[in-house]
Amino acid sequence: MSAEHLRGKRVLVTGGTGFVGRHLLPLLLEAGARVTCLTRACSRTASLPEGVATARADLHSGAGLAQALEGQEIVIHMAALLFGFGWQDYLRANARAAAVLTDALEKAEEVKRVALISSLAAAGPCAVSPGIAEDAAPMPVSAYGWSKLLVEQTLRPLGEKLVILRPPVIYGSADKGLLPVFRGAARGVAVSPGAFREFPVSVLHVRDMARAVLRACAAETGGVYHLNDGREHTMSGFCRAMGLELHRLTGRPARGVVRVLRLPLPVMAVTAAFATGFARFASRFRSFSRAPNWNMDKYREARQPGWLADAGRIRREWGWTPVVPLADGLAEAVEGYLRGNML
Fold first, then answer.
1. CA 168, CA 192: separation in Å to the nearest integer?
2. Radius of gyration of the chain from Cα atoms?
3. Which helix (H) or strand (E) is 336 found in, with range?
4. Cα gap 239→228, rounded to integer Å
5. Which candidate, 80, 237, 258, 277, has a CA 20 to 30 Å from the CA of 49?
6. CA distance linking residue 334 with residue 174, whole number of Å
7. Which domains does the chain have, with CATH numbers?
8. Residue in 199, 187, 185 with CA at minimum distance from that of residue 265
9. Per-residue confidence (pLDDT) for residue 291, from 0 to 100
10. CA 250, CA 257: separation in Å to the nearest integer?
């Protein structure tokens, strides 16, 4: 994929120290972009690629944001809270930050393109092929999904310079969100939401996600674009494929067989409530305590019939297609976890 449109461009990235950022920043540098990563006092910058500059700013107060935006031509906004205890956490971390960023961007005349990495959770669930399309009325079911939709709506005044990408489940090396699923599969066990049913999902490898972000930085008409890897999956099929790659690379699980437990939704609700409650209780005795990956908000998404995205628009208008097959993507994820001693 050509990325000549980025050569020499000044690009500011929020959330660049996160999972997707680790894969995106090297591609931006390879394309010849002059990259700056927005950081906070607590940001871990040691893993940033050589050649990436940093700018300290606060997306909640706005302190330092105008200075960070000075001279920038493209802004990629990825910073977001993925796991929170409740509505207030998501609104404070995601929606409030978007309002502050929008105010600063409206004054930054040199910025010509803003790429927002949203989420399929902002569109809502869909279990019918080919999946939910961009022109469907948004119907978020979780606090996270509502907060991402609010982020989109807050940035809308930027007009045609704004492009919104709504990825489904993103997987790949360095992702901690799906790490418990990989660890369970390595032991031969996985969970699919709901008894006596399949749970259809769209997925996307992080390398294809990064490629889509590069394409979104082109100076073209904005709008909303859904993403997927070109196929429809089920949670059980995804986990079984995960087991095959784990077995090939590690010998676990035995014979590559993953037993998929289709848990009744009431049971999943109880486990989510317990995990959330325990984490809240623990937060009283710790100076910092994050919400668990499995919590009541994620249960609200899991109890839906499925999460399929129709990615026809981005293929028609941009000619963008995913290039990472599921088996190759899962192998890359497993190899990355092994390098980091996470499995």
1. 17
2. 20
3. helix 326-339
4. 17
5. 80
6. 10
7. 4-174+203-229+308-323 (3.40.50.720)
8. 199
9. 84
10. 13
Query: What are the tokens at 311?
Result: 């990615």
Please say whether the dihedral angle defined by the alpha carbons of residues 223, 230, 144 and 218, taken in this order, is positive or negative.
negative
For residue 76, the cross-strand partners are 13, 115
pLDDT along the chain (343 residues), means of 10: 84 95 96 94 78 93 94 96 88 93 94 97 97 97 96 95 97 94 96 96 98 91 93 97 96 94 97 91 71 92 98 94 97 96 91
For 197, the token pair is: 């049913």
C-alpha span between 96 and 62 (Å, rounded): 10
Pairing of strands 189-193, 259-263: parallel
pLDDT of residue 40: 80
Q: Give residue 230's identity as a one-letter amino acid code.
A: G
Using CA atoms, how far apart are residues 38 and 335, in angstroms rounded to an integer? 29
pTM above the 0.90 mark?
Answer: yes
Q: Are 59 and 97 in contact (CB under 8 A)?
A: yes
